[in-house]
Amino acid sequence: MGTLRQCTRSACREPAVATLTYVYADSTAVLGPLATFAEPHCYDLCSKHSARLTVPLGWEVIRLARSDTPPAPGPDDLLALADAVREAAKADPEGPIVQREPRGTLERPVEAAGRRGHLRILRD
What is the pTM of this model? Predict the structure, then answer.
């Protein structure tokens, strides 16, 4: 949620502002705005390293329009999460229905009725 990523160049601690991707089949390097998610085969670069980018001889560089300032942390992700929780609460206002058994007679985990989730209630 709005965490800043660092430049992937060695010993650089600057915030990343661009993402570099290689298209090996076309001998092309694409430098564009910072990707939403960190990908394993992409490189996040700061403004200094993205400006000084060089590619192998015969390769082409495509520079997509972007801003050289790191993205400011915003409340968008948090608001989206809060809206999703509100919608789920409207759909099921009482929450999950839990099967109750007298204490001491419980020998198996109790599951919420009508739901197949990974969460279970375990009693002491």
Answer: 0.52
Strands (E), the chain: 18-23, 28-33, 42-45, 60-63
Q: Is there a contact between 43 and 19 (Cβ–Cβ < 8 Å)? A: yes
Q: What is the DSSP letter of 4?
A: P
CA distance 57 to 54: 9
Domain boundaries, the chain: 1-93, 94-124
Q: Please measure the distance between the N-terminal and C-terminal CA atoms of the chain and give it in whole angstroms.
A: 36
CA–CA gap between residue 43 and residue 75 (Å, rounded):
26
What distance in Å separates the CA atoms of residue 124 and residue 106, rounded to the nearest whole number? Answer: 9
Look at residue 75 in the predicted model and tell me its pLDDT.
Answer: 64
Partners of 121 in beta bridges: 110
Alpha helix (H) ranges present in 1-124? 47-51, 76-91
Cβ contacts of 102-111, under 8 Å, gap ≥ 24: none
